[in-house]
Design goal:
With about 170 residues, this protein is α/β, with parallel strands linked by helices. The protein has eight helices and five strands. The protein has a single domain, classed as Rossmann fold (3-Layer(aba) Sandwich), CATH 3.40.50. It starts with a strand and ends in a 7-residue tail after the last helix.
């Protein structure tokens, strides 16, 4: 099985992928380990495609996976409520503009919108109040056929962030 995990920064991709890899005894490949700085989508697609064509029982993780088509059996999109995401990104030291861009991308369903034309088997999971361990266990349930994923609608939260002045780079 070839599993992809994506979502905007701060949704828990990296830690969840590590936990899932241990639970399934799968190799985990992180986008951040393959690329640094600005990278083209073509380079991401080429490198991951090459890797996935040669391996089974692998998990690939990165925020750009929703923007490229890869030979995955399933793609998990991790979602986090925008106000919680904003706090997580502040704690990670992201600059204000990058925080606003990512919070807006999450609120407007960027990853799911981009992935829907590229992948057939997509499951989105709300990680707002879940640990990486809890999220990985839900993923295993999904892989075993017992999970449909979560429906999310962050627009009301986004409106509060804009009205409250927490999002300013619009």
């Amino acid at each position: 099985m070839r599993i992809g995990i994506t979502g905007v920064p701060g949704t828990g991709k990296t830690e969840t992928a590590k936990v899932l890899g241990k639970l399934l005894n799968y190799e985990v490949v992180h986008q951040a380990d393959l690329f640094s700085g600005t990278v083209s989508l073509k380079a991401v697609r080429t490198k991951f495609w090459w890797l996935l064509e040669r391996k089974n029982n692998v998990i690939v993780e990165g925020h750009l996976l929703c923007d490229v088509k890869l030979p995955l059996d399933i793609l998990f999109i991790l979602r986090t409520q925008p106000d919680i995401l904003l706090s997580r990104l502040e704690m990670k030291g992201y600059d204000k503009r990058k925080i606003d861009e990512n919070v807006l991308a999450e609120a407007l369903d960027y990853c799911i919108q981009r992935a829907e034309g590229r992948y057939k088997n997509i499951i989105q999971l709300d990680t707002t109040h879940s640990t990486p361990e809890e999220t990985a266990k839900r993923m295993i349930e999904c892989l075993e056929g017992g999970c449909e994923g979560d429906e999310v609608d962050w627009i009301p939260v986004l409106e509060k962030l804009i009205i409250g002045g927490r999002i300013t780079y619009l």
